[in-house]
């Protein structure tokens, strides 16, 4: 299934079943170049783009509950906080990455990131019967497709790009 995020927000239990699964974040192509401009060696020609002009930039899995993972990414109202002056690690990896790329303070960014996601993103998900199915799909996707927002286990995007993204995210935590 795939839907605009703004339609899913507040309705995830209606659409997304519980259990393991995998998902792709699709971004409207009109925002991609600007979003990725801070990263070196980005090859826009390698990004998978669908017939509606959406680009696949991030792939993820949930080995336990894809519904909870969707809520973590899409409905994170309790997660945009700092603890003891430091970034709270409960913000989703994708939201933290978007905050860093858009240069928005993560502790003040919830509504801005929600607005960006609602205006530019669609979320595609597939439920699995077993966690191993999701894990195998992640290995395949990150070994064969160009997802510039994935850092861990990414075999396709250049090491220079991944290091720059990781540094940008780390610098953004401060």
Shape: globular
Strand line-up of the largest beta sheet: 1-6-2-3
**Number of extended strands:** 6
Structural class: alpha+beta
Strand content: 15-25%
Largest sheet: 4 strands, antiparallel
Approximately how much helix is present in the residues?
40-55%
Oligomer: single chain
Radius of gyration: 15 Å
Return the string of H and E elements: EHHEHEHEEHHEHH
Q: What value does the average pLDDT take? A: 91
Task: Give the low-confidence spans.
Answer: none
Overall number of domains: 1
Q: Span from first to last CA?
A: 37 Å
Query: How large is the count of helical segments?
Result: 8
Walk me through what this model shows.
This protein has 174 residues and is an alpha+beta fold. It has one domain (2-173). The protein is 43% helix and 18% strand. It has eight helices and six strands. It has helices at residues 5-8, 12-15, 29-36, 66-74, 93-101, 110-120, 131-144, 159-173; strands spanning 2-4, 21-28, 54-62, 82-83, 86-87, 121-127. The protein has a four-stranded antiparallel sheet. It has a two-stranded antiparallel sheet with strand order 4-5. Strand 4 (82-83) and strand 5 form a beta hairpin. Helix 5 crosses helix 8. The longest helix has 15 residues, at 159-173. The model has no long low-confidence stretch (mean pLDDT 91).
Brief digest:
With 174 residues, the chain is α+β, with helices and mostly antiparallel strands. It is built from eight helices and six strands. Strand 4 and strand 5 form a beta hairpin.
Keywords:
174 residues; alpha+beta; four-stranded antiparallel beta sheet; two-stranded antiparallel ribbon; 8 helices; 6 strands; 43% helix; globular
């Amino acid at each position: 299934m795939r839907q605009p995020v703004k339609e899913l927000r507040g309705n995830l239990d209606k659409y997304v079943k519980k259990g393991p699964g995998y998902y792709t974040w699709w971004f409207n192509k009109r925002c991609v170049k600007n979003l990725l401009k801070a990263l070196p060696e980005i090859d826009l020609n390698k990004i998978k783009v669908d017939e509606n002009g959406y680009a696949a930039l991030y792939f993820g899995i949930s080995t336990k509950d894809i519904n909870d993972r969707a809520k973590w990414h899409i409905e994170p109202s309790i997660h945009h906080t700092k603890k003891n002056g430091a970034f709270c690690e409960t913000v989703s990896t994708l939201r933290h990455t978007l905050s860093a790329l858009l240069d928005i303070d993560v502790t003040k960014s919830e509504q801005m990131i929600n607005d960006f996601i609602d205006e530019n993103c669609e979320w595609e998900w597939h439920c699995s019967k077993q966690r191993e199915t999701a894990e195998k799909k992640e290995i395949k996707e990150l070994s064969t497709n160009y997802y510039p927002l994935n850092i861990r286990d990414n075999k396709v995007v250049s090491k220079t790009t991944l290091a720059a993204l990781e540094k940008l995210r780390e610098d953004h935590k401060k």
